[in-house]
Design goal:
mainly alpha
Length: 214
């Protein structure tokens, strides 16, 4: 009896974790691939005027970066209009690895979440998702508040967690690409990410509540 209870508890913990990881990694992927967000940043912050470049040229360089970060067969990053330092290139390589890790977790969690959702539906246990996703839905608003109060600190903390060096501190002289990637752009990315996961968490909560006894 105790063994069955433990097995069910582990299955629930693993299933809920898988669903949360799926939501997080899928939201990250959406933010990464949602190029209109960068296009909006370019326009509202007058980057063509500030960089003395055309809008099309800035976007072409951004697409060069996206292709490098996504395609494993592109092993060298060469911007069309920006020189790069060794430390800058190394940082982008680290970002490339993080992208692959995110997509890897996304694929794995998609599969495990599919089987877990099938399991809870067959056993009429969708109601068990209410509490985990209610709790999860409380986190994004808190992080959004922290972002609004002190985005600079959150931005630094993010890099301290995911990178064990300071190569992300770009020098505009040696890595002028940073001028085309203003900090405001990353703030917009964080905001969109938190909105996406909050929407998903709330959606899962109401779904489990609505279909709990179906």
């Amino acid at each position: 009896m105790i063994g069955v209870f433990r097995m069910n508890a582990l299955r629930k913990a693993g299933g809920v974790t898988s669903l949360i990881l799926l939501i997080i990694t899928a939201s990250i992927a959406v933010v990464i691939l949602f190029t209109p967000l960068y296009q909006l940043t370019v326009r509202i912050h007058d980057l063509p005027e500030r960089l003395n470049m055309t809008y099309e040229a800035i976007m072409d360089n951004y697409y060069v970066l996206l292709r490098y970060l996504h395609f494993p067969w592109i092993t060298e990053l060469e911007f069309l209009d920006f020189p790069s330092s060794e430390s800058g290139l190394f940082h982008f390589w680290e970002v490339k690895i993080l992208f692959y890790i995110n997509y890897g977790i996304l694929i794995i969690s998609s599969v495990t979440s599919f089987f877990y959702m099938r399991y809870v539906k067959r056993n009429r246990m969708i109601w068990t998702l209410q509490r985990p996703f209610f709790i999860a839905s409380l986190v994004p608003p808190a992080l959004l508040f922290f972002l609004a109060v002190n985005f600079d600190r959150m931005f630094v903390l993010f890099h301290e967690i995911f990178f064990n060096n300071d190569y992300w501190l770009f020098n505009p002289t040696t890595d002028p690409i940073i001028l085309a990637l203003p900090q405001e752009f990353f703030m917009y990315c964080f905001i969109l990410f938190f909105i996406l996961i909050e929407g998903a968490f709330i959606g899962m909560y109401w779904y489990s509540k609505k279909h709990a006894f179906n």
